[in-house]
Amino acid sequence: MVGRNRQSRKQRSSGAAAFVFMAFLIALLAGGVAAWLVLEPFGPTSETFVEVEPGTSTTHIGEQMQAAGVIRSRYAFQLLRLWKQGTLRAGEYRFDHPATAAEVYARIARGDVFTRAVTIPEGATIFDVAARLEQAGLGVRQDFLVSAAGQTGLVADLDPGAKSLEGYLFPDTYHLPRKATPEQICATMVHRFRAAAAQLGLQKDVHAVVTLASLVERESALDAERPLVASVFENRLAKGMPLMTDPAVIYGLQLQNRWRGTIYQSDLTRDTAYNTYLHKGLPPGPIANPGVRSLRAAMEPATTDYLYFVAAGANPQGHSLFSSSLDEQNRNVAGYRNAVKKAGGR
């Protein structure tokens, strides 16, 4: 009887050991499979895009990634969710090489969405902005121009009479989603303008300041000269003199689709609202999108008695020539023309 009980206990002990061993093997196998799913690189070798909509569950994101061939199994995402926690971010993601499920999960957790970069330089017009966006693969030029003309409500509190968003599309480098609409792009650029204006303390006379700043931007490439250029315009305005600035004339021609790439004498006599040779005062609105330095110069012009200048951009000597009288201006213009000849120009 005692021997039989000992034998029974040995059998039970042996069976329990076998069960534990099998459970260990299964756990080891499961762990190996999980590690393989999570850590073994997988995915496309060519460009693949996956759009994750706001509010998408982790389960559905895993299904999307598996369906797109980015990961082997959606279950890998479930495992990573249990392990890493965190929030997965919406947006469009680009995959172009094999990666581990852990890497894919990490990218979505930090919001490493695909964007296209586009740089809008200071002094760019809405036409320049539209062209750069199209070149960057961010829509069609004409669609942006229509949007920039139609979304003046974005700046209604700043410039109630704005005819377009010209002047308020702040120059900067933008990283925009591939599918961003013209309306979204306009809103992003205006938002950046508002941030810059707030930093500068620009709250009053926004229309006039931005319009003047756009003239300064187009007429001056040197930071130190911007306040001086602004002072020339302010002095001419105070005396009731026409501003006589070519960039404004050119902008009026662009609006009429008459700009030929070079300004001719006949252009200076063509009557547009932006012809500052024919019409006194500031033009009806901004002629470009100024940066911070030109905005600051328009807000705080230098104190001078200058009424004329030869712009640095046209001067081979590399700086603008300022004068207080027409005689002095004529001498500066003559000197400029001589410098052009010496430099090999006409």
Descriptive notes:
This protein has helices spanning about 1-40, 60-65, 75-85, 100-110, 125-135, 140-150, 180-200, 205-220, 225-240, 245-255, 265-270, 290-300, 325-340; strands at about 50, 90-95, 115-120, 175, 310, 320-325. The protein is mainly alpha-helical and about 350 residues long. The chain is elongated and about 80 Å long. Helix 2 (about 60-65) packs antiparallel against helix 3 (about 75-85) and helix 5 (about 125-135) packs across helix 6 (about 140-150). Mean pLDDT is about 85; it is low at about 25-35. The strands form three sheets. It has a two-stranded antiparallel ribbon with strand order 1-2. It has a two-stranded antiparallel ribbon with strand order 3-4. About 50% of the residues lie in helices and about 10% in strands. The protein is built from 13 helices and six strands. The longest helix has about 40 residues, at about 1-40.
